[in-house]
Amino acid sequence: MILLGLSNETVALYPVLLGDIFTKVRNAFLNKTDSQLIFQNAHDTVIWAEPDLLADLIINLVRNGFQSSPEDNQVRVSFEKSDVVYCSIKVSDRGRGISEEDIIHIEEPFFRVEKSRAKVSGGTGLGLTLCAQIAEFHNTKLDFLSKPGYGTDVSIRLRLYSADDEVLSCV
């Protein structure tokens, strides 16, 4: 299902400072304190990305983390270099968590873990579907690790920039 209207276009990936992406995400949550939204410093890490799409993906994951957590809880955005070619970005919360039964449906359009929250928290159930599509445009996927009562970690694996690389694209 192509939701972004990019099905017939190529999404070009460019060298982008991960710190710049994290700044865009931070600016989307100015109402949260530094103790509520924590970033691991990644200012000198350069990745292949479409910056606006990747920022939207992370913003949605952070928003989901806050919606599923108690008001005083933290959401953490971190990164780790997996090797010389890839890094992982992880958004972690210690909220309600998601059951194994629901995890397998989490990227389906209009799926909501808690149907009763739809009217309270808003949303359409399309956020993670869009995130999955954005991840696909970045030649990766979302990986979920969650346990009810303990929270959720969502990771994406992205290619690091190398001076030997050419502009990457994904159809």
Indicate the radius of gyration in whole angstroms.
Answer: 16 Å
Q: Report the CATH architecture.
A: 2-Layer Sandwich
Averaged pLDDT:
87
Distance between the first and last residues' Cα? 14 Å
Name the CATH superfamily classification.
Histidine kinase-like ATPase, C-terminal domain
Biggest sheet strand order reads 2-4-5-7-6
Structural class: alpha+beta
Rough outline: globular
Number of helices: 5
Estimated share of beta-strand residues: 25-35%
Topology order in helix (H) and strand (E) letters = EHEEHEEHHHEEE
Whole-number tally of structural domains: 1
SSE inventory with pairings:
Layout: E1 11-17, H1 18-27, E2 37-39, E3 46-49, H2 51-67, E4 75-81, E5 86-93, H3 100-103, H4 118-121, H5 127-137, E6 142-147, E7 151-159, E8 168-170
Parallel strand pairs: 2-4
Antiparallel strand pairs: 1-3, 1-8, 4-5, 5-7, 6-7
